[in-house]
Every structure is written in structure tokens, then in C-alpha cells.
Amino acid sequence: ARPQVVHDVDRQKIPVRFVITSAGLVGTDGAAQSGPFDITFMSCLPNMIVMAPSDEIELTRMLRTAVLIDDGPVCFRYPRGAVAVMDLESHVRESIEVGKGRILVEGNDIALLGFGSMVQNCLRAHSLLSKLGIDVTVADARFCKPLDINLVRSLCKNHKFLITVEEGSIGGFGAHVAQFISLDGLLDAGIKWRPITLPDNYIESAPPGDQLALAGLTGHHIAATALNLLGRTRDALLLMT
């Protein structure tokens, strides 16, 4: 299907909406049903808009946003799982500005920039780190492409440490952030950046929580990465025991 997506859709800027279900890890459905590669594949296409919701309300908004885009292709991904918020009717006509992320929690010590479902685990990491006296910013990227460069630049200029988190393979959202901050000179300015992605191997069938732990994507793993960046290795080890 790749040639069709590239040549029949993206090159011609056809307004096709790609809805990618079972994105990331899928628990006991098994590795064959998981979707770790779509961010990397779709975001490398020049005309493709790539977004991912952090929760059910954002999914509703992105569906509306995709319907309104009529000048090129767009894709959005969402994970396997039950819907926790049932009252979504009031959000069905809400849309999102393309390429615009948002800050959910403001802090000063370290910034966590999540993409899609991993925003929730960034918020869990924030709770863990707050108990240790660490002031954390949590941001929801919403878009991998076009990347919200103003949001990323602001996070880099107002923090010494930045962690990107995604439930996708190497070469996806974090790679786009790295490309931007390197070309924009932000790495030269001193920002320390760490990506958290799915590992470069297949995660076999297991309950969702176990899969996330194997992949190093739980709130505890994100918090431990932050603690290591801050030089608090002992706290990181204690957190993971």
C-alpha cells in the first residue's frame, strides 16, 4: 500500500483521511496486530498531516478537524481500548488549529512533551515527580506534522531538560523534534533532550500494562528518565524498585 499512499494520495495532495486504529501496543491481541510504525511512515511524507489525540475528547476534535481539511491528506491514530468519557456529544463540532499543541501543566525544572496516548503517562510522571519536589511542564504535541515549532522552541528556552514520549517506533515524533531543535540551534544553546520511544524490537503478547513496562513507557519509566537527567540517579533507582 505504500506506493498508493505516496503517489496516488500524498504527491497529488488528495484529501484522504487515514484513520489508524490499534496504534501502538495492543495487549493480548499480539505483536502482529500492534501498530508501532505509522508515525514514522506517515510523517515522512511531505504533504501529510499527522496527529494523535491524548484522550477521547481530543479524538473527537481531531475527527472534526480531519473532516474540515480539504487541501491535502491527513492521518490520525488512536490506541486500542475502552472509552472512559461517555459524554462526547458537546465536543463533536470542536476542531483544532492545525499544527498547534498545548501546555497542560506548567513548571520550570523539566519539560515532558507527549504525543498521543503517552500524554497520559507524562501526566502520571508529573504526579510522581511532584512528590519529589520537581517542577514539571507537561505539553501535548497533538501534531507530529506540522510540528508546533513555537511550542517546542518555548519549551527548550524555558527549561534545561526536554523529554519527548511516544508510543511509536524510532524515527517518529521524537526524530522530528530532534531535527527541529538541532537546525534551530537549540541543542547548541544547551537544552538536554532525551527521546522515549518503543524499543527496536517486537513486544510480544501480554496485558497492556505489562507491555508498556517492557517498552519502558510507563509513568514510572518517564519519571525515572527525568530523574536521571536531573542527576538524581538514586531517586530514579528507588522509583523503579
From TrEMBL:
Q: Which cofactor does it need?
A: thiamine diphosphate; Mg(2+)
EC number(s) on file: 2.2.1.7
| Keywords in alphabetical order | Isoprene biosynthesis, Magnesium, Metal-binding, Thiamine biosynthesis, Thiamine pyrophosphate, Transferase
What domain of life is recorded for the organism? Eukaryota
Location of the Transketolase C-terminal domain:
99-222
Q: Name one GO biological process term.
A: thiamine biosynthetic process
Q: Which InterPro entries would you find in this protein's record? A: Dxylulose-5-P_synthase, THDP-binding, Transketo_C/PFOR_II, Transketolase-like_Pyr-bd, Transketolase_C
Q: Which CDD domains match?
A: TPP_PYR_DXS_TK_like (cd07033)
What pathway does the annotation place this protein in? Metabolic intermediate biosynthesis; 1-deoxy-D-xylulose 5-phosphate biosynthesis; 1-deoxy-D-xylulose 5-phosphate from D-glyceraldehyde 3-phosphate and pyruvate: step 1/1
Give residue ranges for domain Transketolase-like pyrimidine-binding: 1-83
One GO molecular function term of this record is: 1-deoxy-D-xylulose-5-phosphate synthase activity
What is one Pfam family matched by this protein? Transketolase_C
Q: Which EC class does it fall in?
A: transferase
Assembly and interactions? Homodimer.
Q: Family, per the entry?
A: Belongs to the transketolase family. DXPS subfamily.
Q: What is this protein called?
A: 1-deoxy-D-xylulose-5-phosphate synthase
Q: Which organism is it from?
A: Genlisea aurea
Source lineage: Eukaryota, Viridiplantae, Streptophyta, Embryophyta, Tracheophyta
